Amino acid sequence: MNSTPRIPVPRPLHRCARRLNAAFQRQSPGGNAATMTARRLTLSAAYIACALLTACGTPPTGSATTPSGTRLTDVIATTGGPIQGLHAALEDEYLGIPYAAPPVGKLRWRPPQAPLRLQSTLRTTHFAPTCAQAPRGAFASPSEAEDCLYLNVFVPRDAATGHVTLRPVMLWIHGGGLFSGESNDYDASALVRAGTIVVTVNYRIGALGFLSQPALNAEGHAYANYGLMDQQAALHWVQANIAAFGGDSHKVTIFGQSGGATSVLAQLASPAAAGLFQRAIVQSGTRIAPYTQHEALAAGEAFAAAAGCPDQSAQCLRALDVQQILRHQTAIAAYIGTRFPVVDGTIVTRTAQQAFERGEFNRVPVVNGLVADEQAFFMPEIMTGAPPLGADGYERFLQTFGATRSASLHAAYPLASYASPSEAEIAATQDLKICTARYLDRNWANYVPVYAYQFEDRDAPSYFGPVSYPMRAYHTAELQYLFPRFHGGAGTAHPLDAAQQALAQRMVADWTRFATSGAPPATWPRYSAASDSIERLDTRAPAVTAAYGIGHHCDLWEPVVLGAAH
After folding, report:
1. For residue 529, what pLDDT is reported?
2. How far apart are CA 227 and CA 205, in angstroms?
């Protein structure tokens, strides 16, 4: 099919690898460098064993023979050629559909190109490789694959051949700070059963997806935001092909969480995405601080030098081994994981503040919200396996907002008022995020319908190991209510109890109703700056909270939010 053959990643290999990663994470805290290296080597060897064992019964290409007993769908004609999917118990699945050419060799750090047309029917019954990334604990599994621009389509049984009315489409953009994550971790069955067609997509991440560097930028093509270009290529694929699966190309909702939500924000602001979607859902998307062109170029030049290209040439960069890229992308990952994507003049043409305050964005209805304890996911115990945060660590956290402002923050969030420094940091950061979400809601509401929410089930199961503080409604906690048993790439899945299952059903109904009509149920009010009302999502009866910003020190955080936006 193309010069780099696709190696499908079957479900057994994903399960095997995730168990190994989970075991590794349980052992990871503590230990010296030699111990950690030995553990990683053991994990790598075990992962290879997984691959070999799985490969014994797995064809090496997507078009090869599938296991006996596998039920296949009818053949679907796409713009790239004919494909055939998996007739699963509750839905039809088309896994690992190429939507762009492999971005390897001369195509590394270039806009996505059309894939070569299929010469025979491609059996899309296995997930394709996920995009290159370093290990990230329970959240995401490591990968060294650059040939990763594939998407998955999940449709109600026989919808592609028996449709009378076209169904709304929901395109999911996975999270992971734009440097980790994978589409394969999200079980779309609940959303599909509710009547939608769900598309999940892999896109370039980390330095491979978001590198700004002088030699590359001077080549005459769109640059820096290659991952956003991939997402737009996937949206173009949806526009051209989704009707063949029974989907309505005029009812496309993009939705994403964390880094995926940052992507949704960027696609809202991108003129290149105009007309590619009609609704947007932003889950825990608060990264609006600009990644300036100067910062991006400086980080790109430092990356090139550290990775082994002191001459800064595009030829050298494209010859780098993937491991070299992953090993030296830390500074770039830190920027793209905390900032709005850099203005490149083609894909991103203005900052978040400019786009949303002036109304210069793709004007579609928006659902926007947070979970109640976002920062619990980002504490050092989870991120690095460090010991619990101490008073000195909390002090350093407050100092990151400046010496002058830290005194006010001490007064607003005194350590004595919380059970631990970790809980104090979680509370302070939550208020910052609430005030950021309110800033976005207020600006969008001047131009489009906005519906705000906060997920508040503080008994949500955690797929992480034990930590010293309560996880409560942590960042990513709501995903398992939309995607059953979500547990990251290597975490531990837990079932929802009866009340949580009822909440999950309600959330799925709300999300899919919005995808269908552009509005959630009537009980969920449209946002206005005057009422500042949000929908509260927890196991209690549906409820609306007015004056959302009151009590969250938005008067204190507003200058921080506006400073970040500028």
Report:
1. 97
2. 6
